[in-house]
Amino acid sequence: MSTPVVVIADDEKDLREMIAFRIRRWGYADVRQAANGFEAIALVLPLLNEGKRVILVTDNDMGKPSGEEVVRVLADKENLAIIMNAGKKPEDKAVLSKLIKFIAKPDLDEVLPVALKEAWATLSEA
C-alpha cells in the first residue's frame, strides 16, 4: 500500500514548511500544505472523494476556522486520520476523542514520526 497523503495545516509558514520537510524526509512522498482551516478542508475533502487516505496534521490556534473547528467538520470522514500539533490541548473532549494524537509543539521531533506511523496503521486497518 502506498503512503497516505499528508496535509499540514498551520498559519505559521516557516513552521509549516519545516514540518513538511521533515515529513518528506521520514518517507512520506505526498505532503501538502494549508495556511488555514479553510485551505485544509478544501485540500482534504477532494482527496477523500478520490479515495485517497489522508493524514491531517493541524494546528489549533490559526484563526477561523480553528483546528478544533476543522476537526469537527472532517472527523467522521472515512480514510482520514487527524493529528493535532498545537501549543495547548483542545478543551473540547469530543474533539480530543477524534484525534489519533495530540502533540505539544515543543515535542514535535520526538512524537510526530511515531504519531504518523500510528495514523498510517489506523488507515491501513480501515
Provide an overview of this structure.
This protein has 126 residues and is an alpha/beta fold. It is built from 5 helices and 5 strands; from the N terminus they run E-H-E-H-E-H-E-H-E-H. The chain has a 5-stranded parallel beta sheet, with helices on both faces. The mean pLDDT is 91.
List keywords for this structure.
five-stranded parallel beta sheet, 126 residues, alpha/beta
What strand order characterises the main sheet? 2-1-3-4-5
Please tally the β strands and state the result.
Answer: 5
By helix and strand content, what is the structural category? alpha/beta
Q: What string, H for helix and E for strand, traces the elements in order? A: EHEHEHEHEH
Q: What form results from the Cα inertia axes?
A: globular
Average pLDDT, all residues? 91
Largest sheet: 5 strands, parallel
Q: Give me the number of helical elements.
A: 5
Share in helix: 40-55%
Q: Report strand %.
A: 15-25%
Secondary-structure map with pairings?
Blueprint: E1 5-9, H1 13-25, E2 31-34, H2 37-49, E3 54-58, H3 67-74, E4 80-86, H4 93-98, E5 101-104, H5 108-125
Helix pairs in contact: 2-3
Short description:
With 126 residues, the chain is of the alpha/beta class.
